[in-house]
Amino acid sequence: MNAKERGRRRFLKEGAALAGLAAGAIRSASGQTLASEISDVRPQDTRAYGERSRFETTVRTPPGTLSISTPLQDSMGIITPSALHFAAIHYNVPTIDPRQHRLLIHGLVDRPLIFTLEELKRLPSVSRIHFVECGGNTSPRSVVERRGAGADTIHKTHGNTGCSEWTGVPLSLLLQEAGVQKGARWLIAEGADAGKHAMSIPLEKALGDALVAYGQNGEAVRPEQGYPFRLLVPGWVGVRNVKWLRRIKVVEQPFMTKHETTSYVSLYPKLDGKTRWFQFEWGPKSVITFPSAGQRLPGRGFYEISGLAWSGGGTIRRVEVSTDGGRSWKEAQLQEPVLRIAHTRFRFPWNWDGEEAVIQSRCTDDRGEVQPTIDEMAEMWGVKTDFFQTTQNSVILWNIIYPWKVTREGSVLNALFS
Amino acid sequence: MRCFRNLLVLVTALAACVAALAQTPTYNLGRTPSAEEIQAWDLLVGWEGKELPPGSGTAQEGAKLYAQKCAACHGPTGAEGSPPPPGQMRPSPRLVGGRGTLNTPKPVKTVGSFWPFAPVVWDYINRAMPRGQEGSLRPNEVYALTAFLLYRNGIIQESEVLDAKSLPKIQMPNRNGFVPARPEDILQSRCRGHRCP
Description:
Oligomer: heterodimer
Structural class of chain A: alpha+beta
Structural class of chain B: mainly alpha
Helix content of chain B: 25-40%
Number of strands of chain A: 21
Largest sheet of chain A: 5 strands, mixed
Strand order of the largest sheet of chain A: 2-1-10-5-6
CATH superfamily of the largest domain in chain A: Oxidoreductase, molybdopterin-binding domain
């Protein structure tokens, strides 16, 4: 920091302190009754970087867990605030100085290239709204491991998804600048975290809708989301969206790294002990976020049921809601905008009569694929449904219809696992 | 006819031109990295082990290293593993044993029972272990630790020397336990979610 910069910062600091004093003076002059509530001094200048009302308390860490999950129970609309976006971290959250960070593109290319963030930002950019969801989100194993406590709120069952507006450079543009050579079929994306997280991505996806994103919801990507930039492979399991991206190597074959051969794979009983690997895409999935497990209805009467639907392969065309345990289904209203590979908000008016009710949603995407029931999922796995109640096997890409039970007392519980 | 042929030549040439154009950089941003810059980062080792560096190690050498650098988390023999340390989410998995459990309700996925490729064991230790000191091991140490784990899993002999030549030749017990079996077939077998054949 040079002298001029130090001076500027001191000016900002003092300015903030003065502003604080002024605000304090106004407060004390304006009335005594609220003084005890509002007189505590805030350390940061919220004019410089805003913060939410201190009466808003929703956080990412569900009680009794260490996970960083989106509190879907409090979500509104389709955008996940960056500060509430889930994060799955394999190694660490590296502290990266964007001026030092580089993106290297090499391998089967005519012109290996190295980009600074500044150079990436000079290139033609796009902004797109997409969800990112961890492959293990909603996995029944976490329920089994925590003996039910892993499923008592939607925060724990469904919180590892988030939806943001991502801004960045299409990966296809960067690959075109480098000139992909004949014979190339895959690329390896590698992060700058401690373990150099690495994933193989088919070239077809890389040249399709993949993005090198430096912006999230109108500002820089958050450190836990890969600052200064990350790979985005829309609709594919979260683990392939390599954060803190530093290298792309264009190759002929996948590298079969640890995280794509021994985890994020499905050991299907129907395959007699064999494992299906390289499952990329999320199927259609939806869940009611209000009322949802962990919440409580104060009494009978009108409630707007609200929830989210999304699909890794396209756009949500239809969401249906059942309030009678799946016997009848009615069409829910989709809130615009309804976007490709993005959370879609749905709404459904409901008069609760005070009796026990099981509520759930199911969605259909524009390929006509319908969200499966747990029984249909069991069939796909080649198991009986109760397999999922006891399995210690890892289960990924679980997109089943998820019912909540509203008791006569108004408590909302997980109707599948309790 | 000749006219037609000429036209065909012209069209082909034009098409080639367009293809060439498509491969020309449009924006000329970024710079060419030096060979050293690429080398410094190009450390990942794939399943075929083509990228393995010089060096070697045996299980005997690896046993000492394992006790110093790995046993605290993965257990004294590697068959134990451990739950996440306080304040951490990820457990340290068992590395040894588990053969014959994959088709049971409680599959134990270890290097010996589950991992399909020996060079990937080398790669993961090399770049991601030990936790907190990732990337600190020298190639000889990584060969030795890989050898130790393979020996403990009954895959190689205690005195067998692992290096860039021998490691890729090791047949892992669960190599044929994946669908599709061949990496080159993965792109042909795309499926959504669990809707797979």
